[in-house]
Amino acid sequence: MFPIVIRIYSILVFCLLLCIGCQWQLRPQDASAEHASVSIQRYDRIESLYLTTGDYSAMQQMNVNFPMQTRMLIEDVLKLGKVNDADINTKFLYFFQDSTLQAMLSAVQQQYGEMDDVSDALNSAFTHLQEQLPDIEIPLVYTQIGSFDQSIIVGYNTLGISLDKYLGADYPFYVDHYSDEQRRMMVREMIVPDCLSFYLLSLYPLPARQSSQYERDVHMGRIQWVVNHLLGRSVFDNDIVAAVDRLMNGADAPSLDRLLRGAGDAVAD
After folding, report:
1. What whole-number distance in Å separates Cα of residue 121 and Cα of residue 84?
2. What are residue 155's DSSP bridge partners?
3. What is the rounded distance in angstroms from the CA atom of residue 44 to the CA atom of residue 84?
4. In sequence order, what are the beta bridge partners of 161?
5. pTM for the predicted model, two decimal places
6. How far is the C-alpha of 41 from the C-alpha of 27, rounded, in Å?
7. pLDDT tens for each residue of 28-61
8. Rounded Cα gap, residues 219 and 241, in angstroms
9. Which of 24, 2, 6 is nearest to 154 (CA)?
10. How many CB atoms lie within 10 A of CB 45?
11. What are the pLDDT digits (tens) for 112-171?
12. What is the DSSP letter of 169?
Protein backbone atom coordinates (compact mmCIF):
# COMPACT_ATOMS: atom_id res chain seq x y z
CA MET A 1 0.00 0.00 0.00
CA PHE A 2 1.13 3.57 -0.62
CA PRO A 3 0.99 6.14 2.19
CA ILE A 4 -2.22 8.12 2.37
CA VAL A 5 -1.87 11.83 1.90
CA ILE A 6 -5.48 13.00 1.92
CA ARG A 7 -7.41 15.80 3.50
CA ILE A 8 -10.51 14.25 4.98
CA TYR A 9 -12.96 16.84 6.16
CA SER A 10 -14.12 15.71 9.59
CA ILE A 11 -16.73 18.43 9.36
CA LEU A 12 -18.04 16.78 6.20
CA VAL A 13 -18.83 13.58 8.03
CA PHE A 14 -20.19 15.43 11.07
CA CYS A 15 -22.65 17.46 9.00
CA LEU A 16 -23.91 14.41 7.19
CA LEU A 17 -24.46 12.61 10.48
CA LEU A 18 -26.26 15.72 11.68
CA CYS A 19 -28.69 15.47 8.78
CA ILE A 20 -29.46 11.76 8.95
CA GLY A 21 -32.50 10.91 6.93
CA CYS A 22 -31.82 13.23 4.03
CA GLN A 23 -34.48 12.83 1.37
CA TRP A 24 -33.41 13.77 -2.15
CA GLN A 25 -36.42 14.36 -4.37
CA LEU A 26 -36.80 16.09 -7.70
CA ARG A 27 -38.76 19.28 -7.43
CA PRO A 28 -41.72 19.43 -9.84
CA GLN A 29 -40.13 22.15 -11.94
CA ASP A 30 -37.04 19.97 -12.42
CA ALA A 31 -38.87 16.89 -13.62
CA SER A 32 -39.30 18.05 -17.19
CA ALA A 33 -36.04 19.93 -17.52
CA GLU A 34 -33.25 18.34 -19.53
CA HIS A 35 -30.73 19.92 -17.18
CA ALA A 36 -31.89 21.46 -13.92
CA SER A 37 -30.71 24.98 -13.23
CA VAL A 38 -29.17 25.74 -9.84
CA SER A 39 -30.36 29.04 -8.44
CA ILE A 40 -28.92 30.13 -5.09
CA GLN A 41 -31.60 31.37 -2.70
CA ARG A 42 -30.24 34.18 -0.51
CA TYR A 43 -31.72 33.17 2.82
CA ASP A 44 -28.70 34.79 4.49
CA ARG A 45 -29.92 38.27 3.54
CA ILE A 46 -33.23 37.92 5.38
CA GLU A 47 -31.46 36.26 8.30
CA SER A 48 -28.89 39.06 8.48
CA LEU A 49 -31.62 41.71 8.38
CA TYR A 50 -33.29 40.21 11.43
CA LEU A 51 -30.06 39.65 13.34
CA THR A 52 -28.77 43.20 12.78
CA THR A 53 -32.01 45.19 13.14
CA GLY A 54 -34.41 42.94 15.05
CA ASP A 55 -36.99 43.57 12.31
CA TYR A 56 -39.79 41.15 13.18
CA SER A 57 -41.10 41.11 9.61
CA ALA A 58 -37.75 39.60 8.54
CA MET A 59 -38.22 36.81 11.08
CA GLN A 60 -41.70 36.23 9.69
CA GLN A 61 -40.26 35.92 6.20
CA MET A 62 -37.76 33.35 7.46
CA ASN A 63 -40.52 31.27 8.99
CA VAL A 64 -42.98 31.59 6.13
CA ASN A 65 -40.69 31.47 3.07
CA PHE A 66 -37.91 29.25 4.48
CA PRO A 67 -39.51 27.12 7.21
CA MET A 68 -37.26 24.08 6.73
CA GLN A 69 -34.07 26.15 6.52
CA THR A 70 -35.03 28.08 9.66
CA ARG A 71 -35.78 24.93 11.61
CA MET A 72 -32.50 23.28 10.61
CA LEU A 73 -30.53 26.44 11.44
CA ILE A 74 -32.08 26.99 14.85
CA GLU A 75 -32.47 23.38 15.97
CA ASP A 76 -29.64 21.47 14.30
CA VAL A 77 -26.88 23.99 13.62
CA LEU A 78 -27.16 26.55 16.44
CA LYS A 79 -28.97 24.17 18.83
CA LEU A 80 -30.94 26.99 20.44
CA GLY A 81 -34.09 24.96 21.06
CA LYS A 82 -37.21 24.10 19.10
CA VAL A 83 -38.29 26.45 16.36
CA ASN A 84 -41.78 26.69 17.90
CA ASP A 85 -40.58 27.54 21.43
CA ALA A 86 -42.28 30.68 22.72
CA ASP A 87 -39.03 32.58 23.21
CA ILE A 88 -37.00 31.17 20.33
CA ASN A 89 -36.97 34.38 18.25
CA THR A 90 -35.52 36.30 21.18
CA LYS A 91 -32.94 33.58 21.85
CA PHE A 92 -31.94 33.62 18.19
CA LEU A 93 -31.57 37.41 18.12
CA TYR A 94 -29.64 37.63 21.40
CA PHE A 95 -27.30 34.81 20.41
CA PHE A 96 -25.96 36.94 17.55
CA GLN A 97 -25.49 40.13 19.59
CA ASP A 98 -21.97 39.01 20.42
CA SER A 99 -19.53 41.51 18.87
CA THR A 100 -17.60 38.78 17.04
CA LEU A 101 -20.76 37.50 15.39
CA GLN A 102 -21.97 41.00 14.53
CA ALA A 103 -18.63 41.69 12.81
CA MET A 104 -18.99 38.41 10.96
CA LEU A 105 -22.51 39.33 9.76
CA SER A 106 -21.10 42.52 8.30
CA ALA A 107 -18.17 40.70 6.66
CA VAL A 108 -20.53 38.18 5.02
CA GLN A 109 -22.65 40.89 3.45
CA GLN A 110 -19.56 42.77 2.24
CA GLN A 111 -17.90 39.73 0.66
CA TYR A 112 -21.03 38.09 -0.71
CA GLY A 113 -23.04 40.99 -2.05
CA GLU A 114 -23.19 38.97 -5.26
CA MET A 115 -22.57 35.32 -5.96
CA ASP A 116 -22.93 35.02 -9.74
CA ASP A 117 -19.56 33.30 -10.00
CA VAL A 118 -20.59 30.62 -7.49
CA SER A 119 -23.97 30.13 -9.16
CA ASP A 120 -22.38 29.79 -12.61
CA ALA A 121 -19.83 27.28 -11.35
CA LEU A 122 -22.51 25.20 -9.63
CA ASN A 123 -24.64 25.19 -12.76
CA SER A 124 -21.71 24.05 -14.89
CA ALA A 125 -20.72 21.30 -12.45
CA PHE A 126 -24.23 19.94 -12.03
CA THR A 127 -24.79 20.01 -15.78
CA HIS A 128 -21.67 17.87 -16.25
CA LEU A 129 -22.78 15.57 -13.45
CA GLN A 130 -26.23 15.10 -14.97
CA GLU A 131 -24.68 14.23 -18.31
CA GLN A 132 -22.87 11.32 -16.69
CA LEU A 133 -25.46 10.45 -14.04
CA PRO A 134 -28.80 11.27 -15.71
CA ASP A 135 -30.89 10.08 -12.77
CA ILE A 136 -29.35 12.32 -10.15
CA GLU A 137 -31.63 14.61 -8.20
CA ILE A 138 -30.73 18.28 -8.09
CA PRO A 139 -30.89 19.99 -4.69
CA LEU A 140 -32.20 23.41 -3.85
CA VAL A 141 -29.20 25.56 -2.89
CA TYR A 142 -29.40 28.37 -0.36
CA THR A 143 -27.05 30.52 1.68
CA GLN A 144 -27.21 31.00 5.42
CA ILE A 145 -25.15 32.36 8.32
CA GLY A 146 -24.18 30.13 11.22
CA SER A 147 -21.77 30.71 14.08
CA PHE A 148 -18.58 29.22 12.59
CA ASP A 149 -20.08 25.72 12.80
CA GLN A 150 -20.77 23.61 9.71
CA SER A 151 -19.71 24.63 6.22
CA ILE A 152 -22.40 22.86 4.18
CA ILE A 153 -25.69 21.50 5.49
CA VAL A 154 -27.29 18.64 3.56
CA GLY A 155 -30.89 17.66 4.08
CA TYR A 156 -34.36 17.36 2.61
CA ASN A 157 -33.35 18.04 -0.99
CA THR A 158 -31.28 21.07 -0.03
CA LEU A 159 -27.67 22.23 0.18
CA GLY A 160 -27.17 25.02 2.67
CA ILE A 161 -23.97 27.07 2.29
CA SER A 162 -22.83 28.66 5.56
CA LEU A 163 -21.09 31.79 4.32
CA ASP A 164 -19.51 32.42 7.73
CA LYS A 165 -17.11 29.54 6.94
CA TYR A 166 -15.85 31.08 3.68
CA LEU A 167 -14.56 34.53 4.64
CA GLY A 168 -10.97 33.97 3.54
CA ALA A 169 -7.81 32.48 5.03
CA ASP A 170 -6.82 35.77 6.63
CA TYR A 171 -10.13 36.52 8.33
CA PRO A 172 -9.15 37.52 11.91
CA PHE A 173 -11.37 35.03 13.74
CA TYR A 174 -10.03 32.19 11.59
CA VAL A 175 -6.42 33.17 12.28
CA ASP A 176 -7.06 32.88 16.02
CA HIS A 177 -9.08 29.66 15.97
CA TYR A 178 -8.12 27.51 12.97
CA SER A 179 -4.94 25.91 11.66
CA ASP A 180 -3.23 27.06 8.48
CA GLU A 181 -4.44 23.90 6.74
CA GLN A 182 -8.04 24.55 7.75
CA ARG A 183 -7.89 28.21 6.77
CA ARG A 184 -6.72 27.39 3.26
CA MET A 185 -10.07 25.67 2.77
CA MET A 186 -12.17 28.52 4.21
CA VAL A 187 -12.18 30.60 1.04
CA ARG A 188 -14.73 31.49 -1.62
CA GLU A 189 -13.09 29.16 -4.13
CA MET A 190 -13.93 26.14 -1.96
CA ILE A 191 -17.69 26.70 -1.85
CA VAL A 192 -18.44 24.78 -5.05
CA PRO A 193 -16.01 21.89 -4.37
CA ASP A 194 -17.48 21.52 -0.87
CA CYS A 195 -21.05 21.58 -2.22
CA LEU A 196 -20.23 18.84 -4.70
CA SER A 197 -18.39 16.77 -2.08
CA PHE A 198 -21.29 16.96 0.38
CA TYR A 199 -23.82 16.24 -2.36
CA LEU A 200 -21.96 13.18 -3.65
CA LEU A 201 -21.29 11.91 -0.14
CA SER A 202 -25.02 12.09 0.62
CA LEU A 203 -25.74 9.95 -2.46
CA TYR A 204 -22.77 7.62 -1.99
CA PRO A 205 -22.25 7.43 1.79
CA LEU A 206 -19.06 6.41 3.51
CA PRO A 207 -18.64 2.67 4.15
CA ALA A 208 -20.09 1.27 7.35
CA ARG A 209 -18.38 2.15 10.60
CA GLN A 210 -16.90 -1.31 10.91
CA SER A 211 -14.88 -0.71 7.75
CA SER A 212 -11.25 0.33 8.10
CA GLN A 213 -10.15 3.95 8.05
CA TYR A 214 -8.25 3.18 4.87
CA GLU A 215 -11.43 2.03 3.12
CA ARG A 216 -13.15 5.22 4.19
CA ASP A 217 -10.21 7.29 2.95
CA VAL A 218 -10.33 5.53 -0.41
CA HIS A 219 -14.03 6.32 -0.71
CA MET A 220 -13.34 9.99 0.00
CA GLY A 221 -10.55 9.89 -2.59
CA ARG A 222 -13.00 8.67 -5.21
CA ILE A 223 -15.38 11.52 -4.39
CA GLN A 224 -12.54 14.03 -4.52
CA TRP A 225 -11.48 12.75 -7.94
CA VAL A 226 -15.04 13.17 -9.24
CA VAL A 227 -15.13 16.74 -7.92
CA ASN A 228 -11.85 17.48 -9.71
CA HIS A 229 -13.27 15.88 -12.86
CA LEU A 230 -16.48 17.94 -12.75
CA LEU A 231 -14.64 21.21 -12.16
CA GLY A 232 -11.82 20.55 -14.60
CA ARG A 233 -9.15 21.47 -12.07
CA SER A 234 -7.16 19.78 -9.31
CA VAL A 235 -8.86 21.00 -6.15
CA PHE A 236 -7.77 17.83 -4.34
CA ASP A 237 -4.29 16.43 -4.88
CA ASN A 238 -3.19 13.33 -2.97
CA ASP A 239 -2.04 9.76 -3.55
CA ILE A 240 -5.51 8.23 -3.65
CA VAL A 241 -6.86 10.82 -6.07
CA ALA A 242 -3.83 10.14 -8.29
CA ALA A 243 -4.53 6.39 -8.18
CA VAL A 244 -8.18 6.96 -9.10
CA ASP A 245 -7.05 9.18 -11.96
CA ARG A 246 -4.89 6.38 -13.35
CA LEU A 247 -7.82 3.98 -13.07
CA MET A 248 -10.27 6.34 -14.79
CA ASN A 249 -7.85 7.02 -17.64
CA GLY A 250 -7.22 3.33 -18.23
CA ALA A 251 -8.81 0.99 -20.75
CA ASP A 252 -11.16 -0.59 -18.20
CA ALA A 253 -12.37 2.61 -16.52
CA PRO A 254 -15.73 2.17 -14.74
CA SER A 255 -18.60 4.63 -15.03
CA LEU A 256 -18.84 7.38 -12.41
CA ASP A 257 -21.70 5.53 -10.73
CA ARG A 258 -19.74 2.28 -10.53
CA LEU A 259 -16.67 4.11 -9.28
CA LEU A 260 -18.61 5.76 -6.48
CA ARG A 261 -20.24 2.47 -5.58
CA GLY A 262 -16.83 0.87 -5.07
CA ALA A 263 -15.75 -0.39 -8.48
CA GLY A 264 -12.04 -0.35 -9.15
CA ASP A 265 -10.93 -1.45 -5.71
CA ALA A 266 -7.45 -1.71 -7.16
CA VAL A 267 -7.00 1.94 -6.25
CA ALA A 268 -6.63 0.72 -2.70
CA ASP A 269 -3.75 -1.64 -3.47
Report:
1. 37
2. 158
3. 20
4. 143, 152
5. 0.84
6. 15
7. 334 334 556 888 999 999 999 999 999 999 999 9
8. 10
9. 24
10. 16
11. 999 999 999 999 999 999 999 998 888 999 999 999 989 999 988 899 999 999 999 999
12. T
